[in-house]
Write a structure and sequence with these properties.
This protein is α+β, with helices and mostly antiparallel strands and 466 residues long. It contains 10 helices and 17 strands. Strand 6 and strand 7 form a beta hairpin.
Length: 466
């Protein structure tokens, strides 16, 4: 059912705040509170290279302010898009929705059927293997994996480096956030390298993925032949020992391989997995349900998991790719206020794509309307900047890319009044030069400076709410 949001959009307050008056009783009078800092002055004093836009929606103030700091400038939203994805998924799927992974027997074939659960883990597959073993049934001649619950996408953002674990493949079968754990240690003059499907309790070897050290300039190289994935790692970068996550690009085979290993540990001999595109009818032998959607969203917003955001957006839209899915989400967000679309583009659901754009004003207005309707304030992380006391009460989502640092959510004033806000910061030139890099020079210092500005603006916003 379409939610009517037009009447719920609050008034906009940007840079001007009115100071509070003194107490009426002169005997009980106290010195008047210091007027809140003017956010425009904070912005000027910060000296942050690049652009910064901000907006605050104040309840009960229908008249827009006369001054906004670049509030209508479209800026890459980064992971603040996940807040929009959260409200979209909640509206379209419902807070109680769960994703089901099934074991299906169809003739002589056992099928591991993915339901598009982005949080499925090795431990979950281990419990499915135990449930299957408890049935005491003979194993069929064939074993297959079906991943058609979602479209198969090779990467979230092709412009990102191939080895980044937060840029994995998407499909209807996703295991361990489509990551594999790479560990290495020096043995003599060479290295011992292992790849594990690491869970909390179970961490079997990943047989469909291999890695080896190589004398090369690139940190990583990658290729796949449809049946296996092959990584090389710069020998000079390894050091004595270490570990990191790598993305998985053949997720159905990865999950099938891991399940085969876990079943073998239970005494069940399964043949090598094959991938099927059509899911036949059959008997459901066992299944695993994900946590409810609202719990999944709370974790997504806290840990900023890209694969969760993309899979939820694709489930909600039913689109065939991320560009179409982002466009459908934008249609939903702006259905009651088409003016919000000006300069706004959503190329995905996580904010990883460099093609998305949104203004601080549009973002704050959406949070004040459909965000408040869908219960988003209760799902967002509290005090995400981890400021020292006395910091204002804030529930918000951060968004970080190279030379992009954003914050959007809700801030509370001393009286308890709550406003929806967005603060978007970008250094366009350095951003364009650093797309896809892992840690470009200067990005850490710039990000600290941007977050200090955001903390100052939040204090001013809170004081201005009264």
């Amino acid at each position: 059912m379409r939610i009517d949001r037009r009447t719920l959009l609050a008034g906009l307050m940007g840079a001007a705040f009115a100071p509070s008056g003194a107490l009426a009783d002169p005997l009980a009078a106290r010195p008047p509170r210091r007027p809140p800092a003017d956010p425009r002055l904070l912005l000027a004093r910060a000296g942050l290279p690049g652009k910064a836009g901000f907006a605050l929606i104040r309840p009960g103030q229908p008249t827009p302010p006369q001054h906004l700091a670049q509030a209508t400038t479209p800026i890459a939203p980064a992971s603040t898009v996940k807040a929009l994805t959260a409200m979209y998924a909640l509206d379209r799927l419902g807070a109680a929705h769960r994703f089901r992974t099934r074991l299906i027997l169809a003739g002589d074939m056992l099928i591991l059927a993915g339901g598009g659960d982005p949080t499925l883990s090795t431990d979950d597959l281990g419990r499915l293997a135990a449930d299957l073993a408890a049935l005491g049934r003979p194993m069929p001649a064939r074993f297959a994996v079906w991943d058609g619950a979602l479209p198969m996408l090779a990467q979230i953002a092709p412009e990102q480096a191939v080895h980044l674990p937060y840029n994995p493949s998407i499909s209807g079968m996703m295991l361990n956030f489509n990551r594999v754990h790479l560990g290495w240690s020096r043995v003599g003059v060479d290295y011992q390298i292992g790849l594990e499907a690491r869970g909390a309790a179970l961490s079997p070897q990943a047989h469909t993925i291999s890695a080896r050290p190589a004398d090369q300039n690139a940190l990583f190289t990658y290729r796949e032949d449809g049946a296996r994935e092959f990584w090389t790692v710069s020998r000079a970068a390894l050091g004595r020992q270490g570990s990191r996550w790598l993305p998985v690009r053949l997720p159905a085979l990865y999950a099938g391989d891991v399940f085969q290993t876990l079943a073998r540990a239970r005494g069940l001999a399964l043949p090598a997995p094959e991938v099927i595109t059509h899911l036949p009818q059959g008997e459901v032998l066992a299944y695993h349900d994900s946590v409810p959607l609202d719990t999944m969203i709370r974790d997504m917003l806290r840990y900023s998991t890209n694969i969760t955001a993309e899979s939820l957006g694709l489930h909600a839209s039913g689109a065939a790719d991320l560009a179409q899915s982002g466009a459908r989400m934008l249609d939903w967000l702006t259905a009651d206020d088409p003016g919000l679309r000006q300069g706004m583009r959503l190329a995905d659901h996580s904010g990883l794509s460099d093609a998305s754009r949104v203004s601080a004003l549009s973002l704050a207005r959406i949070l004040a309307g459909p965000g408040a309707e869908t219960g988003l304030p209760d799902l967002l992380r509290r005090n995400p900047l981890q400021q020292e006391a006395p910091a204002p009460e804030v529930a918000a989502k951060t968004g970080t890319l190279n030379f992009v640092s954003n914050l959007a959510g809700y801030v509370q004033g001393p009286s308890g009044a709550r406003g929806a806000f967005a603060i978007l910061c970008v250094d366009p030139a350095r951003r364009a030069a650093a797309v896809g890099q892992e840690q470009p020079a200067g990005v850490q210092g710039w990000t600290r400076q941007a977050r200090a500005l955001q903390a100052g603006l939040l204090s001013a916003f809170s004081a201005g709410l009264g």
